[in-house]
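Sequence design from tokenized structure. All designs in this work follow the same two-part layout: the structure record, then the generated sequence. An example of the structure record is given first.
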């Protein structure tokens, strides 16, 4: 754990050592923990503090394991993310975590996995994809269906090119806006009907609320067992450790402590957003 004096509310410090502009409004930050290591599992997240502005949760998007260096990618949407976007290399931020339970790897091992990700939803599954990339013999086929609004909204292009070497990757954009594009034009959820995947595959959905709902409904209509569908949920958070109740679901589980990944047979359908 990466807690100061065992107090889970006091962040440790990390220094930004690299920044990549992914799209018009998304930047990837590489953060080196100062005199610290953390061990994180696929699907876990951190609370990042921008001092003077506040704290917000972000998925750890890099290769999991024991490390001093983590990567997060952030869309500028509000107070903390806008402030983060204004920081430069060398700036110091607070880091609490790793938080959440992440993916149930024991359930995913030896299975065919279909990841359906939309927009920044790719970030919630990036650490799992890196885990599968480096431990490919632990899984059967991995399919990645990833969709963005336009070609210029595709994030993590280098990572995707690397994943292509081991996974079946299908990319879509909603519209091309006249930009060069040789992939599919349409919604990422269309791949559910267009691409044949092994029966009994496990499905992981991560993306904007409407995309998650459509993907979930399509899978259910196809007869996929609810126990074979996982969703990664986003909720407003404060404490990140199951104390404040901000992210409490109607089934009594907390997104921060028990999630953010949930199997759909234990999740009321109305929570899939
Ligand atoms: C587990 C988890 C992982 C996340 N990972 C990432 C990530 O990797 N990259 C990334 O860019 N974002 C991620 N987010 C979303 C990010 O935490 C929110 O966008 C956060 O509000 C940004 O803080 P802010 O202060 O910049 O925005 P705020 O000022 O808090 O809010 C800006 C706008 O976003 C809305 N909003 C805030 N939080 C949420 C939420 N959880 N769901 C829906 N709408 C919200 C607000 O209502 C407001 O309209 C994640 C969220 C969770 C819960
Ligand atoms: S954020 Fe406080 S309980 Fe989840």
């Amino acid at each position: 754990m990466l807690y100061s004096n065992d107090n889970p509310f006091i962040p440790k410090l990390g220094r930004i050592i690299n920044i990549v502009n992914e799209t018009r409004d998304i930047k990837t930050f590489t953060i080196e923990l100062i005199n610290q290591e953390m061990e994180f599992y696929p699907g876990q997240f951190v609370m990042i503090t921008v001092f003077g502005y506040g704290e917000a949760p972000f998925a750890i998007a890099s290769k999991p394991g024991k490390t001093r260096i983590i990567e997060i990618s952030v869309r500028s949407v509000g107070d903390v993310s806008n402030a983060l976007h204004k920081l430069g290399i060398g700036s110091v931020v607070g880091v609490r975590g790793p938080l959440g339970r992440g993916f149930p790897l024991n359930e995913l091992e030896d299975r065919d996995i279909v990841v359906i990700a939309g927009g920044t939803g790719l970030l919630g599954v990036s650490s799992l994809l890196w885990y599968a990339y480096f431990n490919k013999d632990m899984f059967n086929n991995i399919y990645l269906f990833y969709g963005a609004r336009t070609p210029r909204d595709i994030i993590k292009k280098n990572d995707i090119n690397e994943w292509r070497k081991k996974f079946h990757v299908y990319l879509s954009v909603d519209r091309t806006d006249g930009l060069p594009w040789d992939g599919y034009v349409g919604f990422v959820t269309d791949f559910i009907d267009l691409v044949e995947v092994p029966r009994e595959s496990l499905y992981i959905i991560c993306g904007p609320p409407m995309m998650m709902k459509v993907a979930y409904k399509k899978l259910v209509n196809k007869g996929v067992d609810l126990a074979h569908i996982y969703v990664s949920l986003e909720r407003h958070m404060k404490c990140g450790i199951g104390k404040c109740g901000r992210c409490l679901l109607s089934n009594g589980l907390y997104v921060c402590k028990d999630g953010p990944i949930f199997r759909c047979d234990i999740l009321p359908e109305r929570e899939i957003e």
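The chain has seven helices and 15 strands. We note this feature because it recurs in several other targets discussed in the main text.
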